[in-house]
Structure formats: C-alpha cells, structure tokens
Amino acid sequence: MRYSEMHLPTAREIPSDAEVTSHQLMIRAGMIRKLTSGIYSYLPLGYRVIRKVEQIVREEMNRAGAQEVHLPMVQPVELWQESGRWIHYGKELLRFRDRHEREYCLGPTHEEVITDLIRNDIKTYRQLPRNLYQIQTKFRDEVRPRFGVMRCREFGMKDAYSYDADEAGAEKSYEKMFVAYNNIFNRCGLKFRPVEADSGSIGGKYSHEFMVMADSGEDAIVFCEKCAYAANLEKAEIGEPEKKNIAEKDWLSLESVHTPDACTIEEVSAFLKVKPQDIVKTLIYNADGKSCAVLIRGDQDVNEIKVKNYLGTAELELADEGMILKVTDAPRGFAGAVKINTRVIADYSVMNMINFVTGANKQDYHFKNVNIGRDFNVEAFIDLRVAQENDSCPRCGGKIKFARGIEVGHVFKLGTKYSKAMKAAFLDKDGQEKIMIMGCYGIGIGRTVAACIEQNFDENGIIWPMPLAPYQVIITPVNINEEEVMKASESIYASMLACGIEVILDDRDERAGVKFKDADLIGIPIRITVGQKNLAQGNIELKIRKTAENRLYPLQKIVEEVKALIDQELNPAA
Amino acid sequence: MRYSEMHLPTAREIPSDAEVTSHQLMIRAGMIRKLTSGIYSYLPLGYRVIRKVEQIVREEMNRAGAQEVHLPMVQPVELWQESGRWIHYGKELLRFRDRHEREYCLGPTHEEVITDLIRNDIKTYRQLPRNLYQIQTKFRDEVRPRFGVMRCREFGMKDAYSYDADEAGAEKSYEKMFVAYNNIFNRCGLKFRPVEADSGSIGGKYSHEFMVMADSGEDAIVFCEKCAYAANLEKAEIGEPEKKNIAEKDWLSLESVHTPDACTIEEVSAFLKVKPQDIVKTLIYNADGKSCAVLIRGDQDVNEIKVKNYLGTAELELADEGMILKVTDAPRGFAGAVKINTRVIADYSVMNMINFVTGANKQDYHFKNVNIGRDFNVEAFIDLRVAQENDSCPRCGGKIKFARGIEVGHVFKLGTKYSKAMKAAFLDKDGQEKIMIMGCYGIGIGRTVAACIEQNFDENGIIWPMPLAPYQVIITPVNINEEEVMKASESIYASMLACGIEVILDDRDERAGVKFKDADLIGIPIRITVGQKNLAQGNIELKIRKTAENRLYPLQKIVEEVKALIDQELNPAA
Asked: What is the predicted ipTM?
C-alpha cells in the first residue's frame, strides 16, 4: 500500500500511561488506540498482525482436526447457574439485563455455551471425539487492567474445547493440542517454552502454559539447566533430597529460651544468634475449617498451592488468632510442633535438620535443639515450598534456573467438571450412558502480538519476525521529487505486488530520515532504499531491520532477492 | 473433510419455532443453533459460509481502498452522550455498568467510536480521505427478534466509515462503496438490486439499500419495468402527472350534505354513492407542534416520510383531537380544505380532480362538488403518497412494479451529523479548520447468508451458489464396505484435496439414500457418487445439485472435470 494513503499515525513521544515496551510501541507505531480503561481499538497496522496470528492459529487448529465455530458473546444466566459459575466467577464476569429484564453476561470464556451445544447434538460415542474452536472476542472485567492489550478487559482469544468418550481419548486430544500449540508459536517466530502448570482443584495432571520468554514477563517460570523440565513458579516441583543418616548421639538437649518480643524469623535469628536456616518456621493453616501445621526451614517460603493440593482442600488460608490459640495455646508468633494440638506436615527442607529452633507454643518462648523423632513426629515430608534458583530438578536432579515469561496459551484437561454439572452424556458402545471428558485450550491473540514485541524490539522500535510482520517490505524513495528514483521505486513496488509480497511504498514527501525512523518504528523486516547515488550505479539498497545489515543489489535482481529472503524466513526448514 | 469426523448434526424435521425457509434450513442443515432469544451459535458448516462472505467483503473493501480495523464492542457512555444518541437511541441500545459502576453500551454501530479515533489522529487535509472498515459483532436489543439470523440481536456486520475533506470527495467515496457493494453481492452469486432509500433527516440524496430479491423478503421494493429505477417502498417516488386543463365551466355548485355517522372514506363513499377516487381525504398532521393539512385522493395512502421530508420537520404525527378541533372547528372525520385554518399541501393525485367530495369542517357534514381554485387553494402539489403498482416511474414515465427483497447492505451519506457533534475537524489547504464529511456503509454478514438461502433452495434443502458453498464437492461412496468403491473414493478425495478443492468424503456407514438426502439438505453444489456398477465400467457419476443433472465421467477424468466446473462457477466471466 502507499504510505500516503495509509491510516498509520505514528508518534515519537512515549505515551505517559504506557508502562511496558509493547504497550508503548503499539501506540507509537499506530497499531492500537485506547478507547477506555482496558478497551482498545486496533488500527490497520495492528489488525494486520492480529490477522496473521489468527491465520496461523486457524491453520494449525484445522490441521489438528479441530473445527471452527462461532459462539455468542452474550450468554444467558441459566447456563452459568447450571455450571455453578454464576455465583463463583466473581466480579470479572460482567452481568447485565436486557430490555425484558432477563439476565445475561458477556462471555469471559465459553465452557457453558459449548457444552450446551454439544449435549444437545451429541448422543452417541460414534460422534466422539470432537474438538470445536473459535476465535472470538471475550470480556473480563479486570479490576485493574494494565500493560495495553497484554492485560485488558476486551480481547480476542482462540478457545477450543474437546469432548472425548474416555480418558485415553482425552489424553490423545490433549496431546494433539499440545503439538498444535508448539507448531503455532514456532510458526509465529517466537522463543517460548511450554511449562507445567497447576491444574488446581479440577484435578488431572495435564496442564501446560505456553510462555513467551521475555524479561518483562509477568510470570516467573523455572526450568532445569540439564533436562527439559519447565514449570511456572507456583507449580515448580522440588526434588526430594537425600535422607541423611541422623545420629541420635548428635541430638542436644531440648532447651526453652525466653525470647521477649521475638516473633519473626529475623527477630528470633538475631536474638538467638542463629541463622534462619537453623530455625523451623511453623505456620498454622485453616484448611476447609480444620487446622494443620506446616513446617518449613526459616529461609524458605510455603507454596500454598502445594499445601492445598496435598491436603485436597477447597479453601486454604492462614489461621486466625482463635485457631492459633486453640492449636498452640499461645498467641501468633510462637508456634512450634512440640506438643502442638493438630496434624503436622513438613517440607523437605526440614527433613535433614537437627538441633533446630522452633516456637515453644508459649508467649515469648522458643525451643532450641529441637529434634524430630524425639520431640515430635510429622505426618509426612513433602514438597511444600516455593522453588528457588539452584534447587534440584524434580526430574533429573540438575539445577533449577529462573526466567520470566508471558503466558500466551494454556492447554488444560478439564475432566468432567462441566460435562457432569451440565449432564453432557452419550451412549457408549455397550449402550451405557456416560459423561464426556473435556479439555479446553486457549490462546490470547492480542497478547501473543504484544509478547512478540516484548521479545523483538530495540531502541528504534519493533522488529517483527517475518511471519507476524504487518508488511514484509517497505520501499523508501530517498526523495520523491527525483523522477528516476520514483520511476525505479514504482517499478519495484509493482513487481513486488505482482509476486504477492506485502509491501509499503513510502511515497510521502518527507525527509529520508523521517521515513527511516518510521520504517524502524513500525518494524518492517526489509527496507528497500532507492537513492539517486546507488541508482546511478544500477543498484538498490536492502536493509535488514533485525541485524541492521546493508546490502546492494542490482535493480533487476532486487525483487527476486527479496522474495527469496522472505520465503526463507517463512519456511526456515525448507 | 471426512463426514464421520465432522460436527454436522442434520435433522429431517422442520423446527417448530422457525417461520422462514432460511431459518428452518440453517437449523436442519446443522449451520446454526439458538442459544437464547435472537442469539445464535454458528456450527462449523454455518461458519464456513460466514467466512466465505467475509472474505469476499474483505477483498472488495481492500480493493476499494478501505482499510480494516477492529473496534471494541463495549463502548463508554461519554461518546454516546457527545453524539446525543445515549438519549435518542432507545431500548435497542443495551446499556450496563461495569464493576466500578461506569456506564457502557454494547455497540449496535460504531459512528461514535470511529469518529473519536479519527478526530484524535487526523489533523490535516493531507490525511484525507480515509475509509476504515471492520467485520465485527454488533448487538441490538430488538424487541422481537425473529427469522433466525435474519433479524437477531447479536450479529456480524461489516461496517465502514469514510471521512472526506469536501462534498466532492464524499461523493467519490460513496461511489466507490456503491461499486464495491455491487461487486460483493455479484461475487456472492446473488440476484440483487441496489434501491434508492430515504436518508431521512440527515439529508443528502445519497442512500441506497442493497436488496436480495426473495418472495419471503421483509421489505417491499419498487422498480421500473422500463428503466433502471428502483427504490424501497417508503422512498419510491411517483412522477408528476400531466396537468390537465380544467374548464371552470365544468365546475358544479358547492353543496353541503348531511352525512350522519359517515367518517371514513368507505362510509362516505357508500353513503354518497361515489367512488373513493372522487373523494379527497384531508389528514391533519402535527409537524413539530405546528399543524398542516395533507390532501390525497381517497383511494391512496399518505407516505409520511415524504411529508416529513417536504416539511423538513424532525417529528411528524397525526394531530390529536385538540389540534383537529382548532384547525377544523369540528371533531375528527370531517376535515376538509374549504375554510380550513392551517397550511394545505396536496398530493399529485388531487391535482386533476374536479367536483370532488371532502369533509365540511362540521360534524356529520361533507361538501360535494368541491373545486380547487374556487373553494380553496393549496400551497403546492407534490409527491406525498405511497407508491402503488403501475404508478408512473419518476425517471422515465414507465410502469412501476412491486417486488420483495431482503436488505443485506446499506450505503449512506452521513454528511456532518457525527463529525459536527463530535468536532471531527481538520486543517484545510488554506489553514482553515473544517468539519469532515462522513459516509457509512454496512453489510449484514449472517443476513447475507440467510438471504442467499431464501433465494436458493428447493424441497430437498439448500442449493448453494459455488462462491458461498461451505464445501464445493461431496463424494458419496454408495457402500463403504465395498473395497473397490472405497479405494476409488479415497483416491478421488486425495486428488481433490491436493488440488485445493473443498471436499467432503461421506465415509459414514449409512444407506446411500440417507447420504443423498444429507448432501441435498446441506446443499453441496457437486455430488460425486461412487458405486459398484458404474465403477465396473470405469465411470463415476457427477450430479449438479442445482439442476439435478447427472453426468458420467471416466474415473481418471473426474477430478479435472470437477475442477473446471468449480473454476467456471467462481469466475463466470473468465
């Protein structure tokens, strides 16, 4: 397209309300505009990138056997009551009434609607498996939208839902999506990792998040230096340490110490002149109304998701003063496992500790030289803590490293949570009625675009990987008032269009510097510069945005060279 | 795709709540499912057709120089207050509050949002003209949704908005869209007419509706037998009749007649034994609070839009008893123009009447032998009535005929209605600030699909024109348990996929009759039947859905023949 006719309002200034790079660059490059809090319009340049992601997603979903549908954004209350989420979803679910005072919500996700479709139309195992997907607008009334389209309220999402007759089928469906997601993000030209994620109370070990690696990412992820293990921080497992032989002869005598005003690990550590690693922290939790003491080494933090999963509870929170008093007979800050009145579980970090410090279940007192087996027992040693860098890998024992990422996709084995609640049943081979097994699979389209920018930019602007570039080439005549220059530019432009290259001709009457700055800002992978001097030698300059590499090609060769370059970037394997 | 894997739930029964053919067939063919009143899900087959229409729309919009954007569906109250439509839009505008109690609506259209975008980013005439479009979901809270996706609440729409620096530019932008719309509906394989439509209080003579011709259409349209004139009924103009020479000697004496209980044309006509054509109806209107008498021949109906346009009023309604009494000194039913106390305008139908009957402005009395020029005068004779079949064409004098259509598109010259209210200004060449001139252009995507079905079906189901067909070909092995039959079917299937034909292989273990019925119902243009008998002769049967024509081709030729047939239907001109 001719730049002069494009609606492409670029800006030099960094918008004051944009915190992250992708947000700043998407506004400066004329890709998006904010309408109101968490709600954005896509301008032509931005929407071209969106459509490229959508097309890749569509092709890979179809290849994996999924079929595209389109479900409504306005959803009736009845279905959400059936699934139980009308009550549980919270304020992110935007609810309203129509002119007849009937209640609806704006769809934040579509498990209810699609399960309703499926249960009405699928009656027998012969119709299974099914995987239906859509690329559609969602609305989640985020309390604090931020980072542009990265965490907004209205956004485009690919959501897929699979229905299977049995567990084996459901695993196969999951695996297909896992492969499709890898293909999608590879084809988008992104550096990413699928990481294990917690699947919470829904159960099932299959849940992966697809993380685009970027220092600015909201999510912390862990990965093993040696093997392929990767997980998000909350899921990150820690390998069981080797059990050391503890010689009872090394146990010192239990000692009660007066520790006035020392409650926290820091205070106790300073007061008793011991390291935090020599203290065992005792946290009392309220798990569905019942108490439980969790022991962990003083320098570590409890990962409550792990506690919750181990206990199998729906709700978990730190106990209030009342429960602490009941369990320890003391106020908060002096809990310890010796003679405590509740079940006790301990993190692996406590397993090999001897002669440690804990609270004495008595105000202003701690015990020294506490030893497990003599002074108290624990129900189990398990993995209950937040992973730290250099922890040992749960798979191979290698060292765990940290990185940051942006979640762009999530594949999830739902099991029968929705199909059971909504009675999505079918007749099996043997004529028995069974409940379908579901999976759900999401990709944030706009977020994928933003994540791509977070991974591909420099001080001059965006650097699009070829597969997502809104245009592949920009032709920049240095001076549009020079006849020869414009003749050559127009001829290259026409040839490129003819062979299907997505190209901008910057026909604006602006200084070359201004045009170069805009080309860099909007991140077009290949810039063709047509200048009087090179042209006199029959040459055209080609600049690669990513490497800043400059090459000269004969005018007659330039289109062919560019075409080859593009094809190579789009199909690196070929 | 293999039929056995497709999510394509067809049905033989006509759904009880579907009134029109397209609605019935879209449900029976597994294209759509109702979620709730006026809200539908598209199943895979239906969505494929939607995407075909979208693609044609997109290509033609791009070719016309429009640029694709994507605007939010959730829109803030402030913009609608600026345009004044927050108050005026009525209950079709679905309003709600978010978690922070801020007010929003679900976008039924996007003039406000796009004008806000444009006014922020366009500053000078150098950035004009612009035409931005989107294909996006709209919500209009229809009081009584009906006819499936034809008149529903949530629907997909292509909406485009043009901004120009001057009237000449705006006309050019309009003309481009007019051409693009003709291309779009032609490419969709539809029989349609662009008809002149009323542009109401917004002014400007440029407004056209694109009507797909179908007997079941909601809209009445008129067209000239001889010339290209076509309009919707409310806009349909009527040519000025020739003025006859009226000889005053033929005027009979005015006569007051007692007409007890005769108010309506029928009653007066029966009582006085005259034809309705000999009576002049006098209607008193309240036009923005002022009265006006409209005269029309007794057998004709007033087209209030024409009255409104002539008077240039915002609101027009029939006068209440009070105003009638004030103007005529009599109750409703006896109004006449003789000595009436208000302005008087008359439809052309009254122009050549003499010695006619009117009300006498006195209860239970009418006048006979009334004559214009002697008994009263009129301000103007103009076109004020609803067109009737055989009226004279306003362009060529030919005869007007009626037809029914379904509105699938509307091109509209908006002028400065929104740009003025929202201050969308730019600096002109001479440094003067000016207001942009807008046009807007809509196409109902789902409605286009439904309209296509209303125009293309028979008792067996849908008959897709090739450009909108969800699949171009269906291969029907007569018996999947015959090895040779399946071998040939699979080989044809693979060859067709390889050359880009959109094809279904009906690999279901069903009787041939069942498969044929489904193929007819879902309307696939070409059916390939692979049966043992023909195959023994090396032949394959090809059936054209539209004509029911059967042909035999050698197995080796079948793919090539089908490909040629498809190409010809997609590019009939080539």
From this structure: 0.90
